[in-house]
Design brief:
Radius of gyration: 20 Å
Structural class: alpha+beta
Helix content: 25-40%
Number of helices: 10
Largest sheet: 8 strands, mixed
Strand content: 15-25%
Shape: globular
C-alpha cells in the first residue's frame, strides 16, 4: 500500500485552501444560531461546489457517509474536474457542528489529500483510540503503553516534567478512567466538548500550550489528523475501538486486527500529502470568519508533507468583486456561499 515519498507534479495546496475558505464562510453564517444541521449542510454544499472546479481526479475516502444516507460528499464520490492527478480526499466540511451552532471556539473546515490508494479509513467502526504529539515528542509514544508511561516519555523528550504537560481529552463518560489516571500522574488536563482534529493539530503548535491528545474519537478524524501531523512532523498512533459486539465482529470479518497500531503511514501512506483548514469560529489555532460590509476575512492553515511547508493565510474576500467575476465567467449561482445578501455567486 505504501509508496515512496515522492511529490505530486502540482502543488494543490492553494487550490484546497480556497475550498475550505468557501465552506467556512458558508458555515459561519450559522454561528450561534442553534442549528448545527443547517451549519453542516451549508459547509458541505459549499465545499462540494468548490471542489468541482479543482484540477484533480479525486475520490472521497472520508466524507459524510454512504451515498444513500449522504447526498453530498459521500464516501466513494468522484470529485474534481477529472484532470490528473488521481487522489484520495478526506473532508470534514465543518469540524465542530455543535461548536458553531452554539458560537463556541475552535470550529474548522478541513480537507486532506493524498495520492490515490494511500488514504485508509476503517469502515467497520466509528471510533479509534488515539494518542498524538508534535515534532518534539515524535518517536516517544506507544499507544499500547499506559497513559502514565507515555507522559513520562513525552516529558523526557520535551525536557520537561510531567506537571509541565497539558493533555487534551474529549469530555466523554468513556474517558473517566483516562482522565483520572492523567490527573493522578500530575499532568494538566484540558477537556474539550468537540473538535479532536483541531486538538491533534494543536499538539504540533507550541503557542497553543497543548502537548498531547489522548482518548477515543472518530476514526475519520484520526485520518485527517494524521495528514496534518505528517506535514508538521508530529506523530499519531491509533487502535480500533469497537463500540459493541456487532462492530467487533465486523472488524474480525474484515480481517482487521484489533491490536494493530495504525500509524501515519498506515493512515495516509508514504506519498505526498496535503492539508488545509480554515477557521469557522475564533480559536486558539485560527481566527474564525469575520464579516464586514461587502466581505469577510478568513484565516487558514495549509501544508504539504513533501516540502514540510506550513503556511498561515489571512485573506480578505470582496463579495462584490467575486460576484462580478462569477457573472463574467458565466458560472452558476449558488445559494450556500455568502458572497452577498441575496443570490451568491462563486469563483
Amino acid at each position: 500500500m505504501a509508496a515512496p515519498e515522492t511529490p505530486m507534479e502540482r502543488n494543490l495546496a492553494l487550490e484546497l485552501v480556497r475550498v475550505t475558505e468557501q465552506a467556512a464562510m458558508a458555515a459561519a453564517r450559522w454561528m450561534g444560531r442553534g442549528d448545527k444541521i443547517a451549519a453542516d449542510k451549508a459547509a458541505t454544499d459549499a465545499m462540494r461546489f468548490a471542489l468541482a472546479s479543482v484540477d484533480m481526479e479525486g475520490i472521497v475516502v472520508i466524507g459524510e457517509g454512504e451515498k444513500d444516507e449522504a447526498p453530498m460528499l459521500y464516501n466513494g464520490e468522484r470529485i474534481g474536474n477529472g484532470n490528473p492527478p488521481s487522489v484520495d480526499i478526506g473532508v470534514d466540511p465543518l469540524e465542530g457542528t455543535t461548536l458553531t451552532s452554539l458560537g463556541r471556539p475552535n470550529a474548522l473546515s478541513v480537507i486532506a489529500l493524498t495520492e490515490r490508494g494511500q488514504m485508509q479509513c476503517p469502515k467497520e467502526i466509528v471510533y479509534m483510540n488515539k494518542i498524538a504529539v508534535g515534532p518534539e515528542a515524535a518517536g516517544s509514544i506507544d499507544i499500547t503503553a499506559s497513559p502514565t508511561q507515555n507522559l513520562r516519555w513525552i516529558a523526557k523528550a520535551k525536557r520537561a516534567e510531567i506537571p509541565d504537560l497539558t493533555v487534551v481529552i474529549l469530555e466523554r463518560d468513556r474517558h473517566a478512567d483516562l482522565i483520572r489516571e492523567v490527573r493522578e500522574s500530575g499532568a494538566r488536563v484540558k477537556l474539550i466538548t468537540d473538535g479532536d482534529v483541531s486538538a491533534a493539530i494543536s499538539t504540533a503548535m507550541p503557542e497553543t500550550g497543548v502537548d498531547v491528545l489522548m482518548g477515543v474519537g472518530g476514526a475519520p478524524e484520526a485520518v485527517i489528523s494524521a495528514a496534518a501531523l505528517k506535514c508538521m512532523g508530529g506523530e499519531i498512533q491509533c487502535q480500533l475501538w469497537p463500540r459493541n459486539d456487532k462492530e467487533r465482529q465486523a472488524c474480525v470479518d474484515a480481517g482487521l486486527d484489533l491490536s494493530e497500531v495504525w500509524d501515519i503511514p498506515r493512515l495516509v501512506g508514504n506519498g505526498d500529502t496535503f492539508f488545509a483548514a480554515t477557521g469557522v469560529t475564533d480559536g486558539e489555532m485560527l481566527q474564525g470568519v469575520h464579516y464586514f460590509g461587502g466581505g469577510a476575512t478568513t484565516e487558514s492553515l495549509v501544508m504539504r508533507s513533501y516540502s514540510g511547508t506550513v503556511r498561515w493565510i489571512r485573506a480578505r474576500h470582496n463579495f462584490d468583486q467575486l460576484n462580478k467575476l462569477a457573472a463574467e465567467s458565466h458560472r452558476p449561482s449558488y445559494e450556500g456561499v455568502p458572497y452577498s445578501a441575496g443570490r451568491a455567486r462563486v469563483r
